[in-house]
Amino acid sequence: MDGMVQAPARAAGVAVGIRGLRKAFGGPAVLQGIDLDIPAGQFLAVVGRSGCGKSTLLRLIAGLEQPGGGSLTLRAGQDLLAPAAAVRLMFQEPRLLPWSSIGGNVEVGLPRGLAAAERAARARAALAEVGLAERAAEWPAVLSGGQKQRVALARALVSRPRLLALDEPLGALDALTRIGMQALVEAVWRAEGFTAVLVTHDVGEAVALADRVILLEQGRVAMDVPIDLPRPRRHGDAALAALEARILDRLLAAER
Amino acid sequence: MSGAVLAPAGLAAPAAGRLGPAWRGLVRAALPWLLPALLLLAWQAGSMAGWIAEEVLPAPSAVLAAGWELARSGELLRNIEVSTWRALTGFAIGGGLGLGFGVLTGLSRLGERLLDSSVQMLRNIPHLALIPLVILWFGIDEAAKLFLVALGSFFPVYVNTMHGVRSVDPQLVEMGRAYGMDAPTLFRRIVLPGALPSVFVGLRYGLGIMWLTLIVAETIAANSGIGYMAMHAREFMLVDVVVFSILVYALLGKLADSLARLLERLCLSWNPAYRSA
User: What's in the keyword line of the UniProt record (chain A) (predicted)?
Assistant: First the structure.
């Protein structure tokens, strides 16, 4: 499996081009003209207060919503890709099917038309990536919250997406499990080279994981901060803390 | 017979605390039968002492003897066959339609607007009130019984299926869409399994109504079946046969419920609420 992963390496990600993107749900516009370029393979974190439109932006990228105006394109080299084929979304909740085995849940992420044996083998490989290879035959109900979210990560990864969209997937986990999951997401991203877009309300998590953090405010990009720090990053690092403080200041300033 | 049933339970119950796990298991298995066994014993004793008149309620031994007589003549088996066939066929028709319409109104707002209020109106008519009309339409033929059983079991299955489909977790449906499931896959992998616990509730209610309807229908208008057997016996004052027929209904009802439970446990083994016996 490792051999398969490393061959395409960094070429695996898609580049996202967003121009004047708008979206409204009846009332005032949630997104009011976003311009954003995400290079292939970048790890982008999107932070902002509740209702700033960060989840809407992610759902637009994942193709779960249609733009109300402007454009959003996914490109691999010169090819345009449809979100359904290129993007996998990890939700805030695990959203596992309680009536399917853990392996069966991971197979949900696979494209249709594969032989049963291959489906099972690929599901197993994806579970091995998140450290749950031995649990494939069990029901999801026996897992802890953190383990369920790892299964959800395996389900998102099993089809080798070119963009992984993460909608606060670690928000509900306890602090220790969360740090473990952050390390896992980072390791998988480095190994597979997909583009990652992480929506989070935790600025510390954003600067620890991302190459770049953008801050949304009232449906616009209010801040765009590159995080050029070497990996793996250590929790409590001074440079990280300084960046975190800068972004938090801006977030809190908006409140006043 | 009743003495033999009672003996192990009566002996084991007070000693449960001091006995090994094998005995304790036996006691636990026997406990639900303790009360019925005691009742039977009291009944038999009352009959033998002459406190219960033979023509009001014959002794358990007499009922059993009547049952044995019916079984030997082949009449019992024939009537059970007829009744079971009616019950299952009627239920298959009514339950099947209930499942289909329940899924339809559960999935589609248009289907609900079109059908649900009509169904709810019909549901409030006691279906047994239709018996005179049904006899006028179908006579006392098989069709009359099947129609009543189907009508009676339709509603609980319909209502619970619709409710089950409606209450499927929308987050799971959204996940399925985001992961590229088409409509049939979405139905098979998410909507149907999600609705199943509720469908089973409807199924068990429907089975109860199935027997109830059949008993009434066979008692009023039939020339075969267990209900007919009971009514026929009444004309000849054969109280023991009447009581025996009632017991057969109880047993068949219990059997249907046990089957539904077994099916439930097999289909819902993923659900912690159904995992243990």
Answer: ATP-binding, Cell membrane, Membrane, Nucleotide-binding, Translocase, Transport
